[in-house]
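Record 1 of the preview.
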Amino acid sequence: MRDVGHTAIIGPTGAGKTVLMNFLCVQAMKFSPRVFFFDKDHGAEIFIRALKGYTAL
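->
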């Protein structure tokens, strides 16, 4: 059985939540994780596409 992790990043506007999530995703890529990135303002869309991910509405 695999370890399963969940993460919530919460903070005010401009606190760096998207930057932190981008960093954590890049660090986790060596483990080939399945990541669901909820980004209501599309601040990480370019980052997600650069990692061969896709966005949905």
